[in-house]
Amino acid sequence: MRIRIIVPIIVDVFNEEVEREFKTYASEKTEIEVVNLDRGTASIESEFDEALAAPDIIKKTIEAEKQGFDGAIIDCFGDPAVKAAREAVDIPVVGAAEPSMLFACSLGHRFSVVTVLENVIPMIENIAKVLGVYDKLASVRSVDIPVLELHDKDKLKNALHDEMLKAIKEDKAHVLILGCTGMMGLANDLHNMLKEEGFDVPVIDPAAASIKFIEALLGLGVKQSRLTYMKPPEKERNV
Amino acid sequence: MRIRIIVPIIVDVFNEEVEREFKTYASEKTEIEVVNLDRGTASIESEFDEALAAPDIIKKTIEAEKQGFDGAIIDCFGDPAVKAAREAVDIPVVGAAEPSMLFACSLGHRFSVVTVLENVIPMIENIAKVLGVYDKLASVRSVDIPVLELHDKDKLKNALHDEMLKAIKEDKAHVLILGCTGMMGLANDLHNMLKEEGFDVPVIDPAAASIKFIEALLGLGVKQSRLTYMKPPEKERNV
Amino acid sequence: MRIRIIVPIIVDVFNEEVEREFKTYASEKTEIEVVNLDRGTASIESEFDEALAAPDIIKKTIEAEKQGFDGAIIDCFGDPAVKAAREAVDIPVVGAAEPSMLFACSLGHRFSVVTVLENVIPMIENIAKVLGVYDKLASVRSVDIPVLELHDKDKLKNALHDEMLKAIKEDKAHVLILGCTGMMGLANDLHNMLKEEGFDVPVIDPAAASIKFIEALLGLGVKQSRLTYMKPPEKERNV
Amino acid sequence: MRIRIIVPIIVDVFNEEVEREFKTYASEKTEIEVVNLDRGTASIESEFDEALAAPDIIKKTIEAEKQGFDGAIIDCFGDPAVKAAREAVDIPVVGAAEPSMLFACSLGHRFSVVTVLENVIPMIENIAKVLGVYDKLASVRSVDIPVLELHDKDKLKNALHDEMLKAIKEDKAHVLILGCTGMMGLANDLHNMLKEEGFDVPVIDPAAASIKFIEALLGLGVKQSRLTYMKPPEKERNV
Amino acid sequence: MRIRIIVPIIVDVFNEEVEREFKTYASEKTEIEVVNLDRGTASIESEFDEALAAPDIIKKTIEAEKQGFDGAIIDCFGDPAVKAAREAVDIPVVGAAEPSMLFACSLGHRFSVVTVLENVIPMIENIAKVLGVYDKLASVRSVDIPVLELHDKDKLKNALHDEMLKAIKEDKAHVLILGCTGMMGLANDLHNMLKEEGFDVPVIDPAAASIKFIEALLGLGVKQSRLTYMKPPEKERNV
Amino acid sequence: MRIRIIVPIIVDVFNEEVEREFKTYASEKTEIEVVNLDRGTASIESEFDEALAAPDIIKKTIEAEKQGFDGAIIDCFGDPAVKAAREAVDIPVVGAAEPSMLFACSLGHRFSVVTVLENVIPMIENIAKVLGVYDKLASVRSVDIPVLELHDKDKLKNALHDEMLKAIKEDKAHVLILGCTGMMGLANDLHNMLKEEGFDVPVIDPAAASIKFIEALLGLGVKQSRLTYMKPPEKERNV
Lengths: 239, 239, 239, 239, 239, 239
Fold this sequence. Notes:
Six copies of one chain form a homohexamer.
Chain A: E1 2-6, H1 15-25, E2 31-35, E3 40-41, H2 47-66, E4 71-74, H3 82-88, E5 93-94, H4 97-107, E6 111-115, H5 121-131, E7 137-142, H6 153-169, E8 175-178, H7 187-196, E9 203-204, H8 206-220, E10 237-238
Parallel strand pairs in A: 1-2, 1-4, 4-5, 6-7, 6-8, 8-9
Helix pairs in contact in A: 1-8, 2-3, 4-8, 6-7
C-alpha cells in the first residue's frame, strides 16, 4: 500500500526526519512518500496558520488520490483541513490528533497531550470535543517551544518529561500523547524515563499513530463515511 | 460604529439583499458595508468550500481592521475562518451560527436549526459542540435546496415551514434558527405562520442575530479573549 | 424602547448607581426605569432569599408589561424568578447571569465567574447547567464580601483582581464575569489591570450584559418561546 | 420518627388521600402529618405557581423543625423551594422528584417520567440536569390532564398506561415514574398492566419514593450538606 | 423482611463486624444474614479480583432467592457482579457504591469517594459513569491502605480524615463517601471531626447506604427492571 | 507477531470460521491461534454469561503471555473481562467492541451497532459510556437472533441489512458496526448493499477491528497503562 504523507508547511526542513520516522513505524509493505505545500506557512501554531494552509492541503490530497495513493496522512497534530480533504477524495485521510487520541482512549483511563505552544491548546481541546472523546482528556499542556525550534532534542525531551510528570501527578493522566508531529524520535525514551520513575504509561508518537491507524483502516477495507463527508456540490470555485 | 460584512463567496448576487437585511436590523448609528471574496467559492455548502474560502476571509478581516471598521461579521452560518480571523485582529469578529445559537439558548428549552443541504448538518452540529451548547440542540434539519437556489422565496418559505413543524413536533424544538444566511427576509413570516398554528416560538434570522450580537459586544466594550485567540507567532507565510 | 429594571431587593441603596450603570451601557434610544420590591429581602445571597423575593418579582414584571414597557430586566446574578416571570408576560424578560454567560461563550474558550459569597456558588453553577453551557464554565470563585458591603470599591476591586488572576492561572479561565450585579463600575478597570499583567481577557459587567442582551432581543423582534414558557393555567391563587 | 408532609397548595382536597398514600408506604414507626399552605396556589403546574408557593413552603418547613419534626417532605414533583428550605433548617428536606429519579437510576438503564401537563416538562428536565442524572432520562411525557382533574382515576390510569407504553416502545424507557404527586394509588396497577403486556418494569410512585428516601436518610443519620446549603446570612427580610 | 448480605470474599474475618454494622443501620423488622464466598479472593482490590469472585457471587445470590430472602446485598464498593446477579433473580440486588452515590447526589452539590488503594479509582469512576452521576463526582481519593489492613481503626480514621479534608478544600466536595465496605463504624466520628473544623458535611457509610436503599426498594415494592436486566437465555453453562 | 485469539465460550463451533476470519484481516506476518474456554458458557448474551466466563478468560490470557504470545484478543463484542485481563499481563489485550467503536469515531459523525439480542443493548451502551465515546453512539439495535443461530448467513444478512437501514434513516447513523463477533464474513456484502441504495457508509467487522487494532498497538510499541491497570496486589485467591 502507498501512503502520501503531506507535511502541511512550505519548508522541507523536517522531511528527512519525517520519512525516517514514518518508515520506522510503517509495515514493511507500506510505501510512504513525503510532500510539502507550495502555499501555506513555515509551521502550524494557530488557527490562522491552519486556515492559510487549508486550500493547498486539499489540493495535495486530491493529487495523492489521482496519483494512485491508497491513503493520505496530513502530518500535523492540528488535523488541518482533514475534514475538507475527506470530502474531496475516495481514499482514507487521517491527521495525527484523531488517531493518537483514539488509541489513547483504549490504553488507559484518561490521557494528556503535551504540545508546543499555549496558542494551540484550545484547538486541541476542540478536536477532542468534536471527536467525542473530551471526557477522556485529562489536560493539554505545552512545553513553550515553537515548532521550528524543536530540533534541540535534549531540551525538548527534558521539557516534555517535566510536563508529562505534571500531567501524571496533577492532572491524573494515565496515557501521554506528544502533541506535535515535529516531536519525533522521543516517545520510547520518554516512556522509559517515566517507567523508571514508577509510571509505566504509554507515550504515543502522533506520526506513528497516524500511519498505524491508516494501515488499519486500509486493512479493514473502510474509508470515511459519505454520509458525514458528502461530495461537495459542483459550483464555481476560484482559489 | 462601522461594521464590515464579509459575504464569504466570490459572487455578489446576494449583496443587495444582504445590505437591505442588515440595515433592517442594525441600530441607526451602525454603518454597514458589504464585501465579497476575491478567491473562494460561489457558495459555502461543505467543509471543502469553507477551507477554500478561509485565507481570503482572513485577509478581508485584516483589511477591515486597517480601514478602521469597529467589527467584522463573516456572513455565513458555517462560521468559516471565524476563529482564525479572531486571532488576526483586535476588533470583534463574529459569524452567524454562534450568535444565533446563543440567543436561542436564552429563549427556550431546546432549539433546532433548519439549513440548506444535508451536507452541512455535521458541520453545524460540530459548531454547537465546540461552542458548548450541544445539549440545547434538538436537531439540525435541511430543506434540501442549494444556496444558489434560495431566491425562490415561496418555495423556500414553504419548505422551511414544513421542516420547522417537524422540528417542533418530532424533535421537541422550542426555538428555531434559519441555518443559512441566504435565508433572508423570512423570519417574521415564519414566526407568524407557526404562531397561527399554535406554536408561538421565536424564529431567529442568523444575519440579524450576528449584527445584534456584535453591536452588543461593542456596546459592552469587549472583544474576543487573547488567551483563546493568541496572536499568531511571526513566521514565513506564503499564501 | 423602554426597559424596566427590577432590582429585586427591598432597599434602594443601589438604585442611583444602578441607573447610572445601565445608562452608561444602554443605547441612546433606550429608556430605563428602576424599581425595587415591596416584599423580599435586603439583598440576595441564597436560595432562601431568591424564594422570598420571587412573588414580588413576578408582580413587578407583570406591572411593567401593563405599564407598556418593552422588556424587563431582573437585575440580579441569581436570575431569581426569571423563568416564572417569562411565563407571566409577553415581553422579553432576562436576568443578569444568562446574558453574561452567553456572551462569554462567544468570547473565549472557558469562562469564570467571581461572585460575592461562597453561599451562591452552587446556585450559579446550576444556572450554567440549566442554560446548557456548563462545559464552558472554568470555575465560580468568591471574594467573600456580602452584597451590602460592596460599596468599598477599592477593597472590592482588589479582591476581584486577585480572584480573577487565580481563575486565569489555576482554572484556565479565558473570559471573566462579575458574578453580582452590585459589582458596578469596575469591569473596565479590571480589564485594564489584567491586560497590563499580560492577560488581555474580556471582563463582563452583568448589568451591562443584561441591557445589551435585551436590546438585542428587542431588535431581533423575539421573546421567550411559549413552548418553554407556557401561560400558567387559570386557577385560584392567593399570594 | 415524625415527618411533616407539606402539600404545597392552598386547598385541602388531596389531604385525605395524601395521608392514606403516605401511610401505605411509611414504616410502622414513622408518624406523618399533612399540612397545606396559607398563601400560594390551588395546584402547581408552572414555574409561576412554584414561585408563588415558595415563601410559604419555607415558612412551613421552618415550623416543622420548630415543632420537632425529624424531616420534611415537600409533596410536589416540581420540588418547589426544596433547595431554599434546605438552607433554612437542620432537618432533612426532600421533594418528590429527586428521590424518584435517584431510585430509578438504580433500577434500570433509562427512565421516563409521565406527568400532568406539557407546561411542566422543561421544569422536570431541568431538575434532572441539576440533580446530575439527565443522561439516564429517556423522556418526560404528559397525559394532558390538569392536577385538579386527576380524581377521575380510571381516565388517569388509562392515559398513564398509554404514555408509559409509548415511553417504553418509542423512548426506550426501562423504568417509569409518575410525574405528579397527585397521581396516587396507581403505581401497582400500572406495573401489573405493563407486566402482563410483557414489560416487567418498575413504576415509581413519587410520594412513596419521598417517604422511603427520607426514612433512609434519617436511618443513615445524615442531612443535606451545609457546604451546598449554607445558612442564609442575617439581613432585613420582609415577606 | 430478610436480607442476605454477601461479603464477596473467601475469608470471614470481617463477618462479625459486618453483621454488627448492618444491624446498627437496619430497621427493626429487617433480618440480615451474612455469607462469604467459597471461590474467589481474600479481598477485592482490582478488576481481577472482581472477575474471580463473580461466578460465586451470582451463585450465592441465586441461593438467597431460593432460600426465600427478600433481597440481596453484595457488600463491596466495587459492586462486583451486581448487574449479572440482577439478571439471575427476581429479588432486588444492590451493591454498596450505587446506593451511596445516589444518596450523595441528593445531599449536596458534589461528592467525593475516599477508598483503599489507587488501584480501584478507575473502577469507581466507571461505576459513576455507568450509573449516570459522573457530573456530581468531585473526586475519588485513596488512603493507600489495603483492605486486609483496615482493622487499625485509628490509623484508618486519621487517613480518611486527611483525604476528606483535601477532597473538601481541593476538589470542592460537599458530601463524602467511604469507598470501601471494610471501612466500618467510622462515618459518625468522621462527620463530627469535619463538623468541628467548620465543614458540616454528610459522611456516608456504604454498608449503611446499601441496607437503607434495599429496604426502601422493598418498601416501594419494586425491583430491577426486566428490560435492563433480562433473564439470561437458556444454554449450556459449565462453571 | 503472535496473537492469541480467546473465543470465550466452551464450544468450538465457531473456531474454524474465526480462524479464517482473522486470517483474512491479519497482516501476513501475524500468526494467530484460537482457543476456547474450559469453563464458561456456550455463548455470551448477558452480564450473567460474561461473569461466568470471566475467570477462565483471565486464565487463558495469562497462559497466552506465558507461552510467548505478543498480544491477546478476547473475541466477543461484550469485551468480557478485558479490563481484568489487562491488569494480569504485560502484553496488550483488546476485546472487539472498543476497537470497533474507536475506528468508527474516526470514520463518521455518529455510529450505530447492530447486535444479536435486546438483552445486551444496555451492556453495549455501557461500554461506550466507559470508553468515553457515548456522544458518538447513534443507537444500538438488535436482529433478535441468538448467537448460536447466526450460522444461517442469508437470514442474518437480511436482518442486519434491515436494521442498518433503520439505523441510517431513523437514528442518523453514518457508520455501522456489527455488534457480535459471530457475525463473520458479512461486512463487505452489507457495505455494498447499502452503497447501492445510496448510503456509502463503512461497515465494521468487530473481529477485523480487533486484529487491526492490536497489530497497530504492537506496531506502536505500546500496551495498556499500568496507572489504569495496576498489577493486582498479592493475596489468597481460590478459583
